[in-house]
Specification:
33% helix; alpha/beta; single chain; globular; six-stranded mixed sheet
């Protein structure tokens, strides 16, 4: 096996420009770099998109979306939320009118049952998992629903190892069993929901025996989870990308929400729905309006009153239609209708499904500017690269975590070289394009956001510091709301109760990339504890846990292919091939393989994944590709 040395990314300390795509980068002054950027964007007005950053501050995301809408006149703004949890936002918004998780982390410690569905939280969300462990120590039972017997599942009372892409049949069978066993909370259903009878008819065919045939999970295990969830006084249903990164990710989310509506496990302390966010501010990016269909505070762009409020505050006219999401922007690149992109702190060249296609599309743009702290693979394709600050250590501002908690972050170190704060860069660029924004710092940006978003109005910097973080909604500067959302659904007064939550009538739709004789193995992807996303930030640091990228197989498949640990093989899908060494993992079942996206400079796993997108949320089906394994020729002496 050839030795693999990780690529070490060095901090960007000076602006970089290139005089043509055929020439290398050269250092430039900030004046030259920003002038080039302004000229490139000015020429692309009407064919422009902006990618915002899920690791930068709320204030940066607010200013970034304002640049798109005010300076460039477009709602084409999005972030990596599209790659991961956009289905969670879409599903929760459809059910409850709000796209945030409904509970606090502390409630997981005080609940009676935790269901981890499609989530290896011990590796992917280790901070949240500490709260889960406290809950278990306090007496909570935990069940894990996941195709792999993950490190998280090792802590579970029961593991339901379902086939990839069968989450809806599993959820429907659980729902049917709850109804048939007389465990549905009919009082809550009558009070707070709509569409129950249609839902009951939808799930009726999904008997335990049929679900066992489709999901591969024993009927007895499905029944046990159904009864445990319905009988629990308080229960938390948590999910991650194993639910959302499918071509029907929003439908998957709706299927899980249905179970909470069926049992009344929402809108109460200790009972709720938790989509676990993987980056420090992916929640905040959406909250701040760095998405194509919502203003800051999740206010609908199509709402004339909301539009009028922002137009008055910003002295501009907002397009009265939704913009393109990240997926649609890549499709528009292919069509030639999107010609310029401003990319802040994201690396879509390596994080998008079918990465070869993503690189080709980015390379075909008329103009690409990247604002980042490293020269990523995406930045290597750019015309201008602007060195920014690290949001967690070099910047003042706020971030918002998975429990909707807004927290202050502070500059602890001085940025290297000529690197500048994101907000300052965006403000100076806006000025060159005719918009003078007199922000004196991040607090001024936050106060403008507070004046426009009722959910954030009560959160001054001083109060955030005093309370050590506050969950939205917080409309009153003198009061804190409950830690959970949607308590209104339990109100006796219909006026106070408001809009009822509809059951989602969703149907089973198997993975797009079917396995067959040519591609007989199902590949699913995920994270490891020791690494972070595309490895740009984590790859340069040693870890005793890190062993690089492998294709993980179960012992039976390794024996069938005649391969051993460390042997390099070719892994192929219908889109491309990579070479990777083998690792044998007893947590996998026959016919299932696992890889990560952490080492794309070495093994570009996303060359294998498929761009089959959720039609509602635009998220690709990273979790269900069909692959084959081919042994490589044995090298001869002297070759």
């Amino acid at each position: 096996m050839r030795k693999r040395d990780p690529k070490i990314y060095r901090r960007l300390t000076r602006p970089l420009v290139r005089d043509s795509r055929d020439e290398p980068f050269r250092p430039a002054t900030w004046d030259e770099a920003l002038s080039r950027t302004a000229a490139g964007l000015r020429a692309a007005r009407g064919a422009f998109g902006l990618f915002s950053c899920a690791r930068a501050t709320n204030e940066m995301s607010y200013v970034a979306q304002k640049v798109a809408r005010v300076v460039m006149g477009t709602n084409n703004v999005d972030s990596c939320n599209r790659t991961c949890h956009a289905p969670s936002v879409a599903g929760l918004s459809a059910a409850f009118g709000s796209g945030g998780g409904t509970s606090s982390y502390a409630e997981v410690e005080e609940t009676d049952l935790v269901v981890m569905w499609g989530s290896n939280a011990r590796f992917a969300h280790p901070i949240f998992f500490q709260h889960v462990l406290r809950g278990i120590r306090n007496g909570a039972r935990m069940y894990a629903v996941d195709p792999r017997r993950t490190s998280t599942a090792e802590w579970a009372e029961g593991w339901l190892g379902l086939n990839v892409g069968t989450d809806i049949p599993m959820a429907h069978a659980i729902g049917r069993e709850i109804i048939r066993a007389g465990l549905a909370n009919h009082s809550f259903i009558r009070r707070a929901t709509t569409g129950f009878e249609e839902y009951r008819r939808l799930v009726e065919p999904w008997t335990l025996s049929l679900a066992e045939k489709v999901t591969g999970v024993p009927a007895s295990a499905i029944r046990e989870l159904a009864h445990a969830y319905a009988r629990a006084e308080r229960a938390q249903l948590c999910w991650t990308l194993g639910i959302t990164e499918h071509h029907n990710g929003t439908d998957n989310v709706r299927a899980l929400i249905n179970l909470s509506l069926l049992t009344g496990h929402v809108g109460r302390h200790g009972s709720g729905l938790q989509p676990l966010r993987g980056q420090n501010n992916v929640q905040g990016g959406g909250d701040m309006g760095a998405i194509p269909n919502r203003f800051p505070g999740f206010q609908d762009i199509l709402d004339p009153d909301a539009r009028a409020k922002f137009e008055s505050a910003w002295d501009t006219v907002i397009e009265p239609h939704y913009g393109l999401n990240l997926t649609e922007m890549f499709e528009a690149m292919e069509e030639g209708t999107l010609k310029a992109v401003y990319c802040i702190g994201e690396n879509p060249a390596q994080s998008e499904a079918d990465s070869e296609q993503a690189v080709r599309r980015l390379g075909a743009l008329d103009f690409l500017v990247v604002q980042d702290i490293f020269l990523t693979r995406t930045a290597e394709l750019a015309d201008v690269v602007l060195p920014a600050t690290a949001g967690w250590a070099e910047t003042e501002g706020t971030t918002t975590n998975s429990e909707r908690r807004v927290q202050r972050v502070r500059a602890a170190v001085t940025p290297p070289g000529e690197a500048r704060e994101d907000i300052d860069i965006l403000r100076d660029l806006a000025a060159r394009l005719g918009h003078e924004w007199k922000y004196t710092g991040s607090e001024a940006v936050w106060d403008e956001l507070r004046s426009l978003s009722p959910d954030h109005y009560g959160m001054t910097y001083a109060r955030l510091e005093e309370e050590q973080g506050i969950q939205w909604p917080c409309p009153d500067p003198h009061r804190l709301e409950p830690t959970y959302l949607h308590g209104r659904l339990w109100a006796d007064d219909p006026a106070e109760r408001g809009r009822r939550a509809p059951f989602g009538l969703v149907r089973h739709d198997p993975p797009v990339d079917l396995t067959d004789e040519a591609y007989p193995i199902r590949l699913t992807t995920g994270r490891r504890l020791d690494s972070y996303n595309t490895g740009v930030q984590s790859g340069g640091f040693a870890s005793p846990l890190r062993r690089g990228e492998y294709v993980e197989l179960c012992p039976e498949d390794a024996e069938r292919y005649g391969v051993v640990v460390g042997e390099e093989v070719q892994v192929s899908s219908r889109r491309g091939s990579v070479r990777a060494p083998v690792w044998i993992d007893t947590a996998l079942r026959p016919g299932l393989a696992f890889m990560t996206m952490h080492f794309p400079d070495d093994v570009d796993t996303n060359r294998l994944t498929i761009e089959a997108n959720c039609p509602i949320a635009g998220t690709a089906e990273f979790k269900a590709s069909a692959i084959r394994i081919d042994r490589l020729p044995v090298a001869t002496v002297g070759s």
